[in-house]
Amino acid sequence: MSYVQWQGRTWSLTDDEASLIVRLPPRDCPAALVEWDLSLDHFVRASQPGPDGKKDLIAALHVDIGNLGLRPRTWHDLSGQHIRADARWYEQTSQSGPFGKFAKTRFDATAWIMTGCADAPNLGSTGREHWAAVDFEVQFGQRDGLVFPCEIDAWVLPHEDFNREEAETPEELAAFGQGPPNLRVITRAVFTRGSLQMPRCGADPWPQAQREIHAALGPFEIERHEVKWDIHRPLGTDQYTERPGWRSSVRFWTAK
Amino acid sequence: MLHFQDQPWMLRHGVSHISALISPDVTEPKDIFWQINLWYVNGAACWRRVPWPRRPNVLLGLHGFCLAARSWRSIEHLNFWNLSDDDWFDTEGAGVDAQFSLDGLHKTTSDLRSGDSSWRIVQREGPIFTVEISVLPEGKGPPPPAISEQILVTADGTEEATTAKPEDDYLRTEAMLYVVEDVPFGVITVQVPRNVRDPEAYAIARARQLMLAPEHPEYIDIRDHAPHLKEFRNIAGDIYVSLHYHGYHGE
User: Fold this and answer.
1) Which residues have a Cβ under 8 Å from the Cβ of B60 and sit 6 or more positions away?
2) Which tens digit of pLDDT belongs to each residue from B94-124?
3) Which of the residues A68, A108, B69, B181 could staple to B74 if both were Cys, CB 3.0 to 4.6 A apart?
4) HSE (CB half, 13 Å, CA atoms) of B192?
5) What is the helix, strand, coil percentage profile of chain B, to 5?
6) What is the mean pLDDT of chain B?
7) Among residues 59-118 of chain B, which lie with CB inside 8 Å of chain A?
8) Is B24 on the interface with A (CB under 8 A)?
């Protein structure tokens, strides 16, 4: 179930769910920390089927929180976690990725509303598509299997107004969430997948990766995994090729 | 962790590492060009809406030091802490390059090397070295002379004589810029002659011969600048093979 209130307009309830995605730091970069991301696609479809019998997509909202800044002892401890993304939260959670990259923004929202559709006028402005939030709150409820009830309140800005060249003033920093939030979400967040980068450890990194995943997150069932070897460009060619046995990225999916 | 201007600073992992360049004329370990680079970005909340390349940055560079032993592990013995003026000027690699940019990369930078600087490797754990750096503000004199003896009284009343090291505290507390950071080893770039059949094997063999580098790097990056920079004969002559021993970071 996914409930969205966007710019004061309530969209239709859908069966969409948010994904909780974990990124583990490679063990040869011990200073980097585990990162939990949250991602939601809320798709609103036309009330009546079209000539082809399918209900057309009339609006879509994609919400992506790049790093929730949570440090649970195991993934079970996501239960009851509350995030209030204020200045203090930012300073506590801000970090470079394991190889020097920083997240561009913490909270991205992409809203797309089809123009000229009978249902669309009820969904809000079709003007801007890309939004970002400085201030937001996320509340997780009690765990049920891999699922956490989740509520999000965010004060989103047009993306072009988000980035600035000068530092915020102390007054701006202190002013958290002025007025009612212009994005509210109530949904189910499901721990769906994760990834980690493995240093060289032989022809099959999966057994070692599995041990590291469970040591970092606690027990859960993994349905499938995928190993992607680092790519390499041999001298004199433009083609990148995989190098089995070298460094790898391991992705895994939970047994939903 | 960097202490500078009472601001929170975030270390950029990956690009902050120990590196070495082995050029064709290097025959002894002491001729290898070593450097340690640390790159910090201001992590204060007030900058959260400013893309990180345009925030205040601090770049620290330690370079030109030599390793006496034929092993990369001997980095752990580097110590340029609280040298006398004469020793400081006579010792290659003792200096600290410290650049501060208020408005990000490629913008105005100021040199912070106005006062005395010290640095040393405090410890090594596997391929991670802990480096300590102190840069005193301009006009700050050297630390006070060591107090020869202090008496410590233990819980059971025993008195123990000890030599205090007030210069350590002085270099920490009075520093304009002070760093304690874990820095990984690293990236070794080997200039490989163009006519070598297997540049990767050649680079690994050179790194092993000169610094006992591990046999298996995590990533190998081969750059041939010749097609792009024909006017530079020295670059066109060699292939640059970078052996990454700590993950891989592309810039």
Assistant:
1) B37, B38, B39, B40, B96, B97, B98, B99, B133, B179
2) 778 888 887 766 566 677 766 788 899 999 9
3) B69
4) 28
5) 20, 35, 45
6) 84
7) none
8) no
**Considering only CA atoms, which of B222, B217, B195, B193 is closest in space to residue B204?**
B217
Spatial separation of the C-alpha atoms in residues A83 and A78, rounded to whole Å = 11
SS (H, E, C) A81-107: CEEECCHHHHHHHCCCCCCCCCCCCCE
**DSSP-assigned beta bridge partners for residue B68:** none
Q: What residues of chain B lie within 8 A of the CB of A88, using their CB?
A: 45
Task: State the Cα angle at B4 between A103 and B103, rounded to 5°.
Answer: 55
The answer on pLDDT for A201 being more than 60 is yes
- Yes or no, beta carbons of B49 and A163 under 8 Å apart: yes
Contact A100 B12 (CB under 8 A): yes
Residue given tokens 């040298």 in the structure block: B83
* pLDDT of A227: 97
Q: What burial class does residue B211 get, using C-beta atoms within 10 Å of its C-beta: 0-12 exposed, 13-18 middle, 19+ buried?
A: buried
Closest Cβ opposite residue A247 in set B182, B218, B224? B218
Best of B48, B221, B238 to mutate (most A CBs within 10 Å, chain A): B48
Average pLDDT for residues B10-25, to the nearest whole number?
Answer: 91
d(CA B139, CA B142): 9
What's the one-letter identity of residue A51?
P
pTM: predicted TM-score of the whole model, two decimal places: 0.86
User: Cβ of B13 and A166 within 8 Å?
Assistant: no
Determine how β-strand B128-135 pairs with β-strand B150-153.
Answer: unpaired
For an interface test with A, the pick among B13, B39, B190 (most A C-beta atoms closer than 10 Å) comes out as B13
Q: Is the separation of the CB atoms in A242 and A227 below 8 Å?
A: no
| Token digits of residue B139 | 């006009």
Q: Range with the lowest mean pLDDT among A14-28, A181-195, B128-142, B150-164?
A: B150-164
Strands A183-198 and A18-24: parallel
